[in-house]
Write a sequence for this structure.
């Protein structure tokens, strides 16, 4: 037995030495082996139970990546890695909006994607408010990764302290608006060594083994490779992000909107970034950037048209076309078209003003055509192959250096090419008019100035007429580079006659400066009804409610149940607008949406002719049409006037008591039914004694209280909205905001009453008034 015990001890000792040598040998090889790929390997050799921080340094030009391996149970005595502590802090903060040392901004708690321990995360951590570096570049890289990998959770972490926590919260809110950040941002009061200084990218899966990318000039391909390696470990999860319940909800879920600035989404203008002019036609083209649309208006402020309805990427007529954060515009008088920089879609669009159609200039896009014949051609391999066209639904696997990424400004060099520049003036793309291809890419501010410096200098010379304080405020709000800060305003102003029209993103308005008199005023927009419903309600309201994660949560203003006899029912809504507010202009039919379902058999829109209570036969209708034709022949001028009255949308009645009245006549059959009415009221604060004596913060608080019931918004977000409005130092009583109204009326109709002979039914007319208070 003693010999056997001795042999066992020897075997145990030899086994431990062999295993130890293998582990150390593999560890040495992992450090000395030269890197052959852009991202660190994700094989089993990296998952050993080592206590050491493994570092891989790539050659110059590539990111420095560090990977923290999991500590074994025997390493409990050694100090834990700060990066592991950071992951634990993030994991513990997911379930609470605020905690002892953290605050979430731009966070959607209806999205359960972040409420899980398993998943792939990409975090941008550091001092996000550091003015010494160009943060736009960091965010653009993170946006590219976000567009490419929709199944990954993205977030930002800013490290602050108790002394500046309030100021940092407001500054981060401004940053979210300016950079259009759709991922949540975590404000942390805890400092983590070697992480809270410079901005770094941290990639991890299931809150384990983080990859840390340190260098500022990060090669995005390295992060792409790392993400692909992590996502391929769970193929079902990567496939699920492309599955949608049905076709009409696909676009709504594909474009992710920011969750912080819900208040700003209900303002008439939300980050008016750029503007251009048609001096001959006396028209202005305003990029309502974060509303994803172009507003066409006259110098007087009258809105005449609008391009775009919802964030996305789709050609078509102005009402259905989709863009994603349009910025610079250029009007071509010869073609009567408007060239638009579709920034977040990395595209150039062209709007034909005459035909009211939006199309894509770059990249060349072909749309998939459905049908049996297309399917047969595809299966036979007879589909058209064209290298100059790309499919709008496909995403490039690699990010080409020549690709058009986040363009912002646009100029016309000659009749053959367009000059497109990004926001930081670090890249210039020269695009050919005819082919729609990129001819040349120029990098560097100095080289860009050599090519288009004369055009830029001529336009910027107009800035001499503008007030210096306004220039300083706008430059601070837009500028992201130091070489020539005024160049960042290149697309923010234009000339129209004797006036200089300029956007003011700090105050969400458009200013007009007369060059002769020097008078400066804010443009007051009118005919706002042409914008129709809020931009985010681009699909029928019922479908929004049926979506698990709808475009926006539409607040239910009023519900009521009625029990009436079947027949014709005249329903009138008496709407009382919020106190201390007034309508910008009378509400029009274009701002009202109605839907009936259930036993409602017919719906007559407001403003139509009153129909008789009794049913009429086909022959009687034929005679009525003959009478109308005879009247038209006898008096054509009266007929034309009557026709013009029918074509123009009728304004909704409004009495002296200030209430708005919307008529909704319907016809019902026995059974249950429902009438849904949705309207967009364009309001502003009334000029009375109460608002005259109110402070800037009190006025901002009033606007927030009016808009707050529309969404489920926390007090913290309301305070941030108030701080940003108060900080803008503008006349808050001139701000136009949208108050959505959503009314649902449920009808329960019994059977028709019988006549005395017990065979015929009695047709009934009913009328009811419904009082709605917003």
């Amino acid at each position: 037995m003693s010999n056997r015990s001795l042999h066992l001890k020897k075997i145990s000792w030899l086994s431990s030495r062999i295993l130890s040598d293998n582990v150390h040998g593999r560890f040495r090889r992992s450090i000395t082996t030269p890197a052959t790929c852009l991202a660190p390997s994700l094989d089993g050799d990296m998952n050993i139970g080592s206590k050491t921080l493994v570092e891989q340094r790539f050659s110059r030009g590539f990111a420095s990546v560090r990977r923290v391996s999991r500590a074994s149970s025997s390493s409990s005595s050694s100090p834990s890695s700060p990066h592991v502590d950071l992951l634990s802090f993030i994991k513990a903060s997911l379930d609470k909006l605020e905690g002892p040392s953290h605050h979430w901004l731009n966070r959607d708690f209806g999205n359960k994607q972040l409420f899980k321990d398993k998943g792939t995360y990409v975090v941008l951590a550091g001092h996000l408010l550091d003015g010494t570096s160009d943060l736009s570049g960091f965010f653009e890289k993170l946006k590219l990764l976000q567009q490419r990998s929709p199944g990954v959770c993205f977030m930002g972490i800013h490290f602050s302290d108790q002394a500046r926590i309030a100021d940092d919260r407001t500054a981060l809110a401004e940053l979210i608006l300016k950079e259009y950040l759709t991922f949540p941002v975590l404000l942390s009061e805890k400092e983590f060594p070697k992480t809270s200084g410079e901005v770094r990218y941290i990639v991890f899966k299931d809150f384990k083994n983080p990859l840390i990318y340190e260098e500022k000039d990060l090669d995005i391909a390295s992060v792409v490779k790392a993400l692909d390696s992590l996502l391929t470990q769970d193929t079902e999860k990567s496939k699920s992000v492309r599955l949608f319940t049905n076709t009409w909800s696909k676009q709504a879920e594909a474009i992710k909107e920011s969750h912080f600035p819900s208040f700003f989404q209900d303002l008439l203008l939300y980050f008016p970034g750029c503007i251009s002019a048609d001096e001959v036609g006396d028209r202005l083209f305003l990029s309502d950037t974060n509303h994803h649309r172009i507003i066409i208006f006259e110098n007087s402020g009258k809105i005449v048209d609008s391009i775009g309805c919802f964030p996305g990427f789709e050609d078509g007529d102005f009402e259905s076309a989709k863009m994603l954060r349009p910025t610079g515009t250029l009007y071509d008088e010869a073609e009567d078209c408007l060239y638009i920089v579709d920034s977040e879609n990395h595209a150039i669009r062209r709007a034909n003003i005459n035909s009211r159609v939006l199309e894509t200039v770059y990249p060349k896009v072909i749309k998939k055509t459905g049908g049996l014949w297309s399917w047969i051609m595809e299966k036979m391999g007879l589909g058209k192959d064209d290298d100059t066209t790309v499919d709008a639904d496909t995403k490039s696997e690699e990010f080409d250096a020549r690709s058009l990424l986040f363009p912002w400004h646009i100029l016309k060099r000659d009749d053959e090419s367009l000059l497109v520049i990004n926001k930081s003036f670090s890249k210039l793309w020269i695009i050919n008019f005819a082919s729609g291809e990129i001819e040349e890419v120029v990098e560097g501010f100095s080289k860009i100035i050599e090519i288009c410096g004369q055009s830029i200098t001529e336009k910027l010379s107009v800035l001499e007429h503008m007030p210096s304080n306004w220039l300083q405020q706008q430059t601070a709000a837009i500028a992201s580079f130091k070489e020539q800060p005024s160049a960042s305003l290149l697309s923010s102003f234009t000339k129209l006659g004797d006036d200089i029209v300029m956007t003011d993103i700090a105050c969400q308005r458009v200013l007009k400066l007369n060059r002769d008199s020097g008078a400066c005023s804010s443009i007051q927009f009118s005919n706002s009804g042409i914008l129709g419903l809020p931009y985010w309600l681009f699909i029928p309201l019922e479908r929004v409610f049926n979506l698990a994660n709808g475009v926006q949560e539409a607040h239910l203003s009023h519900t009521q149940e009625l029990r009436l006899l079947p027949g014709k029912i005249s329903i009138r809504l008496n709407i009382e607008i919020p106190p201390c507010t007034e309508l910008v202009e009378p509400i029009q039919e274009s701002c009202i949406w109605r839907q009936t379902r259930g036993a409602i058999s017919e719906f007559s829109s407001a403003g139509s002719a009153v129909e008789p209570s009794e049913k009429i036969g086909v022959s009687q209708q034929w005679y009525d049409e003959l009478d109308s034709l005879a009247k038209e022949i006898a008096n054509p001028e009266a007929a034309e006037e009557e026709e013009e009255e029918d074509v123009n949308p009728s304004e909704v009645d409004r009495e002296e008591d200030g209430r708005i009245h919307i008529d909704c006549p319907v016809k019902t059959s026995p059974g249950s039914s429902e009438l849904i009415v949705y309207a967009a009221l364009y309001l502003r604060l009334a000029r009375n004694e109460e608002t005259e004596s109110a402070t800037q913060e009190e006025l901002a608080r009033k606007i927030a209280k009016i808009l707050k019931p529309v969404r489920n918004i926390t007090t913290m977000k309301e305070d941030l909205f108030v701080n940003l409005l108060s900080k803008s130092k503008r006349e808050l009583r001139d701000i136009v905001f949208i108050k959505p109204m959503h009314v649902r009326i449920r009808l329960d109709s019994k059977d028709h009453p019988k006549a005395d002979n017990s065979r015929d039914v009695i047709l009934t007319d009913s009328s009811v008034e419904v009082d709605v208070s917003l």
Notes: The chain has a mean pLDDT of 75. The first strand starts at residue 54 and ends at 56. The domain at 269-396+403-524 is CATH 2.130.10 (Methylamine Dehydrogenase; Chain H).
